[in-house]
Amino acid sequence: MSEQRDARPDDGRDETPQERADRMWGDLLQEIRVAQTGVQILFGFLLTVVFTPAYRQLSDQDQTLYMVTVVLGATATGALIGPVAFHRILSGRLVKPQAVAWASRLTLLGLSLLLLTMVSALLLVLRAATHDDGYVPWIVAGVAAFYLLWWLVIPMTLRMSAPGDADARAEKAAKKD
């Protein structure tokens, strides 16, 4: 028995909810590969810092900042690897549209945690490198604003101005199945 086509003239696609979920899953995996590589390299580097002589020279405040940064890196790594577990556990269970929706949410959480990890690491490095707290927070705030602009503001602006929301339609179609 063939699935009913979900033709959408506004997005130019003629695909079933399962085909859409397959396509969206592939897109999500490509996005995760990019983010995962960066977060794993950053996290790996962070794990080595505590074993260097310079770590013991950090102030208590900077050591606390380091620990917060490591925990953020660990959670970002876990969140960005999480969709793999979703896929492995749910593979073949005919819930791919729902799995894509949840994996997408987990990826957004991972990207948010990655942003916090990068900002925290930048703050730590600049504090250690300059020994000056006067302008460092301003530099870090500027970098954080840059990330927020390109990772959140511009994409959300484009999303709100788009004629339709394919993700919402895909979730709605998944609930019908």
Model description:
This protein is mostly helical. It has six helices and two strands. A two-stranded antiparallel sheet has the order 1-2. A hairpin with a 4-residue loop joins strand 1 and strand 2. The radius of gyration is 21 Å and the shape is elongated.
The end-to-end span amounts to 14 Å
Number of helices: 6
Class by SSE composition: mainly alpha
Helical content class: over 70%
Mean of residue pLDDT values: 87
Q: What does the main sheet amount to? A: 2 strands, antiparallel
Q: Name the poorly predicted regions.
A: 5-10
Shape: elongated
Work out the radius of gyration: 21 Å
How many strand units?
2
Topology as H/E string?
EEHHHHHH
Roughly what fraction of the amino acids lie in strands? under 5%
Strand order of the largest sheet: 1-2
Short description:
By secondary structure, the protein is mostly helical.
Secondary structure blueprint with pairings:
Layout: E1 6-8, E2 13-15, H1 17-49, H2 53-57, H3 60-90, H4 96-130, H5 136-161, H6 166-176
Helix pairs in contact: 1-3, 1-4, 3-4, 4-5
